[in-house]
Amino acid sequence: MMPTFGSSLKMRIAVVSVLLFLAGISLIAFFATRILHDDMQEVLSNQQLTTVNYIARDIDAKVTLRLESLKRVALNIPEALFSDPPAMQKWLEDRKAIHTLFPIGLIVIPPDGGPTIGDAPRLKTRPKSFADRDWFIGATTTRQPFISKPLIARATGEPALVIAIPVFDGQQKLLGILAGVAPLAAPGFLDLILGTSPGKNGHYQLIAPQHRLFVLASEVNQAVTPMPETNDDPVLDAAVNGLRGIKIIRNAANRDELVATADVPRTNWLLVARQPTGDAFEPVSNTLRNTLLITALLSLPSIIILLAVLNRLLQPIARLARELHEMAEGERPMQPVATHTADEVADVAHSFNRLQDRLQEQEQRLAEMAHHDMLTGLPNRRLIDERLENELHRIQRNQLGLALLFLDLDGFKPVNDTHGHGIGDRVLAEIARRLKAAVRDVDTVARLGGDEFLILLTDTEKPQKAAERVAQKCIDALSDPITINDLQIHVGVSIGIATCNAEQAGTTSVKQLVSQADSAMYRAKAAGRNRYEL
C-alpha cells in the first residue's frame, strides 16, 4: 500500500525538521541579540572612554611639556639680562625652539609687573602692566611655577593659556617672571578636540571646574566661556562632583547621554565626552534590527531550499569537506580543490583555491617585508645581519675577506625639516639607487633606518683596498646634487669601515663588526664629515 502524502515518513521527518529549525533559529536569534546588545554596548562605551582617556593624557603631556620646557629656559637666563632689556630681547629671540610651544609670546616681566623686559615676538598690543594677571600674582606670591586660568589673550584675541615661572638670583631674590603664552587651539596643543566629536551629534568639553570656565570644546566659540550655573546641566554637574569613567546620564532636556569623563591632572581640568545614547548605540540597534530581519527573511527560503536540494548537495559537500579536512590534518598536500559542479559547492571550492593563492602571496609579501626596507627596497638590518653572519662563516672556508661600511648621511636632517618628509623620502630613495650603483651585484647595500646605511663587500682578497675604493665611489656618487622637482639638494656622507679576514672571522661577531664600523663612522664625522675612516 502506497503511503499517502501526509503519512509519508519523509514528509513527517521534514515537518519535524522544519519545526525544530524554526524553534532553534528563534531561540538562537533571541539569545544572540541579547548577548550582542550587551557586548556591543560595552564595546562602544569602552571605546568612548578609551578615546577620552587618551585625549586627556595627551593634553596633560602637552601642558607638562610646555611647563618643563619653560622651566629649563628660566634656569638658563643670565641674571645680568634683567637689567639690560635689549640684551634680554635678543636672548629671548634666540630661543627658537621654545617659540614653537609659545607662539603668542615668550615674555619676561619685572617683579613690579611691567612693562616687559623682553618680548618675543614683539607685539605692539602687549599690555604695559601685568600686575593684575592671576598668573603673575600666583607666580610672585607662591614663588612657584603657575598655570593661568583659560583666558583670551589681549595681544591676539585668541583663547590661550599662560605658564609663568619665577626667576631668582643666587640669594633667592625675585628677578622677574618668565611667562609663555600658548594658544589653546594651536596645532599640536589642544587641537585633538577642536572640530571633532564623539559620534554624529556629540561633543567634547574641556572644563576648568576651579574657574567655572570652558577651556575648549568641539565648537571653538565655546572656548573660555562661563560654565552653566549649578543644576542647569546635570552632565557637567556630575563631572564636577566626581564622576569619572563612563556613565549614562539624563541631561537637562530629559534625554539620556553617554558621558565619559577623565582628569587632566597638571591643570586640574576635566575632559568630558558626551553624545546622545541614540547616536552612541545606533550601531547596536541597527545590528539587532538587521539580525532579526535577516533571520526572518532567510528562515523560510532556507527551509525550502534545504528540502529541495538536500540529496543533491550532500555528496559534493561531503567530498569537499573530506578533502579540506585531509589538507587541514596534513594527510594530503595543500593543492587546489577540484570540483565538477557549477553550484555553491563549486564557489566554495574556487574561493578556497583563491584564498590559498592569496595566503601564499601574502606569505611571500610578509617574508619580503620582514627582510627589506619598505621605502628603498633595500635589505633591512635583519637581512644584512643574517648575510653578515653567513659571510663570517664562509670566509673561514674560502680564505677570503670581507668589509663592512657604515654610512651616515651628512646634512640630511635639514632636508626633512625644510622640505618635509615626502621630499626626504624621495631623497633617500635616490641615495639608495646611487649606492647600489656604486657596488658589485654580489655586494649588499642595506638601510638600517633613518639616514643610516650598511654596505657589505664579500669575496675580496684585499678587503681594505676594496672598501676604500667603494667608500670613495659612494662619496663621489653623493657629491652631485639630487634634483627633485625644482629643488637642488646636497647631501654628503660619512663612512666608517671595518674589515675582517679569514683568521679574524672565527672570533668576530656581527655585533662587533657593526660596532667597529659605527665607531669609525663617528671618527669620520669628527674629522670633518664627507669622508671615510678605517
Question: How are the SSEs placed, and which strands pair?
Answer:
Blueprint: H1 9-75, H2 85-93, H3 96-99, E1 105-109, E2 118-120, H4 134-142, E3 146-147, E4 151-152, E5 159-168, E6 174-183, E7 203-208, E8 213-217, E9 225-226, H5 234-240, E10 245-250, E11 256-264, E12 269-276, H6 277-280, H7 282-328, H8 344-371, H9 381-398, E13 401-410, H10 413-419, H11 421-437, E14 444-449, E15 452-460, H12 463-477, E16 482-484, E17 487-489, E18 492-500, H13 502-505, H14 510-526, E19 532-533
Parallel strand pairs: 18-19
Antiparallel strand pairs: 1-2, 1-6, 3-5, 4-5, 5-6, 7-8, 7-12, 8-9, 10-11, 11-12, 13-15, 13-18, 14-15, 16-17
Span of the ends, CA to CA = 104 Å
**Helical fraction:** 40-55%
Q: What is the annotated CATH architecture of the domain at 381-533?
A: 2-Layer Sandwich
How many beta-strand segments? 19
Main sheet: strands, sense, barrel: 6 strands, antiparallel
Number of helices: 14
Q: Would you tell me the overall average pLDDT?
A: 84
